[in-house]
Amino acid sequence: MPATQVNVEYFFRLLYETIFGPRSPLDYSALLAFAANLWLWIIFIGYALSVAGLLVIVYATMRLFELRKREEHFYNTLITGPEEATDMHPRWKHIQALAEETGPSALREAIIEADIMLDDVLAKEGYEGDGVGEKLKAADPAQLKTLQDAWEAHKVRNQIAHEGSAFDLSETLARRTLAHYEAVFRELNVI
After folding, report:
1. Burial category of 177 from C-beta neighbours within 10 Å (exposed 0-12, middle 13-18, buried 19 and up)
2. Which residues, 6+ apart, have CB-to-CB distance to 152 below 8 Å?
3. pLDDT one-digit tens code per residue, 51-84
4. In terms of Cα–Cα distance, which of 160, 14, 58 is closest to 6?
5. Which of 12, 47, 62, 87 has the fewest CB atoms inside 10 Å of its own CB, making it the most exposed?
6. For the purposes of burial, counting CB atoms within 10 Å of the CB of 46, is it exposed (0-12), middle (13-18) or buried (19 or more)?
7. Rounded distance between C-alpha atoms, residue 104 and residue 108, angstroms
């Protein structure tokens, strides 16, 4: 028996003609046309998604800038406390107006006016005595918690009254003294 040889090239040729030949069940030209058409749709959808994404980015950026403006307005706006009472004592308003003026004479006058006001307030509260000093001596520290403030302020007033313009009244001392008077008046619900 003769030896048979297998022709491999023949089998590959049959396979090639089955896939790419004229009698092939597959139509590659239609497949290539479909793939080209599909690629066009993929490109179109990609561009549409890119434009939509760009619009979302622009919208989000605009909203972010609006938010930053609102935050800047919110954080730069000072929140103030309740307004001071409009029925403030008119003498205290006058004393504050004197304190706002520049010059030591206005500050001296403000301190003297505040001491006169303190004398009247202590008299209305029922403290007895011929002057502020005697009324403060009669005061009970348990009832008047700002008694020490009243004494400090009255001592400065006495120095002004006794030494006059020779007393060196600094603006800091004057403001501190008026703050002592204010503390007493606030405790006594005058201002």
Report:
1. buried
2. 177, 180
3. 999 999 999 999 999 999 999 888 877 666 555 5
4. 14
5. 87
6. exposed
7. 6
CA distance 150 to 186: 12
Q: What amino acid occupies position 74?
A: F
Give the domain 90-187 fold. Answer: Four Helix Bundle (Hemerythrin (Met), subunit A) (1.20.120)
How does pLDDT run across 120-166, given as a tens digit for each residue? 999 998 889 889 999 999 888 888 899 999 999 999 999 999 998 88
Burial category of 168 from C-beta neighbours within 10 Å (exposed 0-12, middle 13-18, buried 19 and up): exposed
Q: How confident is the model at residue 118 (pLDDT cuts 50, 70, 90)?
A: very high
